[in-house]
Amino acid sequence: MLKVEGVSKVFRRRGAETVVLDGIDLSIGRGEFLCLLGASGCGKTTLLNILAGFEPVSSGSITLDHRPLRTDGRDGVMLFQDAGSALFPWLTVEENVRFGLSRKGLRGGERDALGTKYLSMVGLQHDRTKFPAELSGGMQQRLQIARALAVEPAILLMDEPFAALDALTRRRMQVELLQIWQSTGTTIVFVTHDIAESITLADRIAVMTVGPRSHIKEIVTVGLRRPRSLADPEFGTCFSRIERSLADVGAPGAGVRP
Fold this sequence. Notes:
Helices cover 36% and strands 25% of the residues. It is an alpha/beta fold. It has 2 domains: 1-75 and 154-258, 3-Layer(aba) Sandwich (Rossmann fold); 87-152, no CATH class. The strands form 2 sheets. A 6-stranded mixed β-sheet has the order 6-7-8-3-9-10, sandwiched between helices. The radius of gyration is 18 Å and the shape is globular.
């Protein structure tokens, strides 16, 4: 469905050039959950920003279903690590979700029905009149997910959305995200530097080399049945394989060994 071919990104500042991404090739199937994994500074977020339309490519192409990827938010919607900053603090929970639907041109009953559907999906139907500041960190992330899903994008782009949460909330959000993904069939591209998180969530993991001139070193297919457990010996085997792959490209160990 989504095809990234030969994508490079060069930043030019004060006459100097930095090649952040160098020849990224990646194919992502419809409904797939793919994690971009690598050390901080390897270009994961830059690639996600390109897919979201926030950054232009320096060379290469990106297509969705054999046509150019639209960069106006109609194909991909981004979720950020800091949900509190991404949400509109002056709007209620319900109004935050309705905002994107209004921008999409929906009005009245159809907009209200979709808003109710996705608030119920993330368990915030009883908090619709609250403001973001009245929600916990996990609830704010659930609201951000509901707002993104409500416009029914082809691709959900997630930039380390659980990194700021405590361990227990993070694990709960991972479980809830998988349930939402399985019920909607939305394609997800998820950025993380945590090996265990990537194995827990992904169908496939794209391991990126250390920047500059970062590229995809290896794509690992996670064949474990869901739900996945850190205690599963196969989980540990997969973890060790990815850890070795990161070590080969000079990346420090990420996450916590199961």
